[in-house]
Design a protein that fits this description.
By secondary structure, this protein is α+β, with helices and mostly antiparallel strands. 23% of the residues lie in helices and 31% in strands.
Amino acid sequence: RLGTLPDRSAPRVVTWNARWLRVPHSDRATRKRSFIQAQAAQGAICLLQETHWWAGDAALWGGLFPQSTVVHSLAREGPGRGPQGGVAIVVPSQWEVLSTRELVPSCALEVSVRRTGTFGRGIRLQSLYFGPSRRDDDVDAYVTAAPADPGQDTPLYAGGDLNLSLEAPRDHDETAAGQRLLHHWAARMSQPLDGVGHTRRGRVR
């Protein structure tokens, strides 16, 4: 969970590793969809991770959030040939999508938005997922794909499942990956937000 220093124009952002959004009519999927819809109805931009969407899934789910724009990066093939990762951003109607960028396929997606009906400076949001089996490679690809643009002052908000601890890294590799991310965000005037409570509660039932 990351964000720029507080300002009055800051959006409400929800980030969630939804862990499989495939079969839309299951009870579990219905509860997840209802949660996302409720957040979007309140004007929150939702950053989703581990959607596991193939192209057909993305087309189906993209139509299930009325009055919202759904931007996605499809899952990649995992070790067992099933879908791995996949990220999406659900942008409610209070925000206009200006541009999108797939920074790292299946792992890092960026949208630029501004409040609907305004002509001021926009903001950038990123949904990130660095899977444990390829975390370090994904972090490197993300940092390389999203260089700081000279003179760019667009606020950046990023959120996701990093599969590492920035506050208390557990080994050298995690420390190195965390430092790369922190330096990357610091160059964009963004800093980690303080965590509140647990970031994982197990499977939704």
